[in-house]
Amino acid sequence: MNMEVNEITLRDGRSCTLRSPTPEDAEAMLAHLRGTRAETDFLARGPQDPVPTVEEERAMLQKQLDHPRSGFLAAFVDGEIVGSTGLHSQDIVRFLHRAGIGISVCKAYWHLGVGSALLGEVLAQARRMSIEQVELEVVAKNTRAIALYQKMGFVSYGLREHASKLEDGTYQSEYLMVLRF
């Protein structure tokens, strides 16, 4: 689904455009993926995980635009993608009331309001789509993200221990969170 364009002002005064990325943004999206994966252990995929080809990314972005119950949103500052989020629902009748989300923000843009703006927009889209429940997983040590999710109304309903294993052999647990409208 193509999400509406929105302009926001970041906490540092810069302008940020929120919009659905198009197939023409594939290379920029891949650069964002590579960059954020290398900056933190809080994302599901790390720098060692495969990255789609430009052609695969273009196809995925087009599929997101065409899907009536999913959406993808990116934050652009000076033409660069600095954050992204996705709303993903399944085409299974019994699951049409639910959607999952994921979010990533470049470290240089943490604490500037990018994550709040992206999350606010994707949740508004979920409401417009009559989704009743939005779900996510978050690394238990990611206290900033947890605080943001709680501020937006998410509650924790479980802990998945040893949810991910880092390259150094340590494990990370993650909270399962849900927001019901």
UniProtKB/TrEMBL annotation:
The keyword Zinc-finger does not apply. GO terms for molecular function: acyltransferase activity, transferring groups other than amino-acyl groups. Residues 16-181 form the N-acetyltransferase domain. It comes from the Bacteria. Keywords: Acyltransferase, Transferase. InterPro entries: Acyl_CoA_acyltransferase, Bact_Acetyltransf, GNAT_dom. Coiled coil: none annotated. PROSITE patterns: GNAT. This is GCN5-related N-acetyltransferase. It comes from Ethanoligenens harbinense (strain DSM 18485 / JCM 12961 / CGMCC 1.5033 / YUAN-3).
